[in-house]
Amino acid sequence: MNSVENSIENSAEKTPHLSIVITVLNEAAALAHHLTALTSLGSQGIEIIVVDGGSVDASVRIAQPLASRVITSLPGRARQMNLGAQYASAPALLFLHADTHLPPDALKLITQTLVQHPWGRFAIRLEGKSRWLPLISAMINLRSRLSGIATGDQALFMRRDVFDTVEGFPEQPLMEDIEITKRLKRLARPACLRAHVISSGRRWDQHGVWRTILLMWRLRYRYWRGVSADELAKAYRHVR
């Protein structure tokens, strides 16, 4: 967590109920729209922390007036999320991808859920060009509900003390979301909310639905067999 190069803090509520950590890498095209939607929740007690992993576009400049705090970091989603959590001041954490949008009642849902559950995730709805995305979304949600394992684009949320108990995200280049949810599952099964976050289906649109599905399942199978995340990341470089 010593990779901070710069931190810019805007005025924010001193005791937010929820800290939202958003990892960014060259997301200028849609970042303003995404952050503007989140800032409308600020009066509800939300702190927005943007952690940029070395963007060469205007991501940092766009984020500065819209986030509670903007941090620049070495690249790596796990490293960026851990760094954002280090600066978070709320008792609850939400880790959000830059292309994932929350439902309007997200704060209420998370607050109510964390009273009885230490961690949870939303259902996902992928949006894009492919007609297969609704089916893919349904399968992701079903798999997560049955397995108790969630992925980062399902907007993982948890109590801060639980995040500290599992020592945050393992700083590996791939499968960091799978690994932290495996650790969290040892403490308790997740709360699987039926409310949907909306996430971009650009990965499937750009690389092909079946090609992407086969790649992801192959990587997960190899990870389950013990192949290192470093080795798997070489095959997944186009996603990173």
From TrEMBL:
Instruction: State the UniProt keywords alphabetically.
Output: Cell membrane, Glycosyltransferase, Membrane, Transferase
* Cross-referenced InterPro entries: Glyco_trans_2-like (IPR001173), Nucleotide-diphossugar_trans (IPR029044), Trfase_2_rSAM/seldom_assoc (IPR026461)
List where in the cell it is found: Cell membrane
Known CDD domains for this protein? GT_2_like_a
Please give the chief subcellular localization of this protein. Answer: membrane
- Does the keyword field hold Glycosyltransferase? yes
Glycosyltransferase 2-like domain mapped to chain residues? 19-118
The name this protein carries in UniProt is TIGR04283 family arsenosugar biosynthesis glycosyltransferase
Species assigned in the record: Halomonas llamarensis
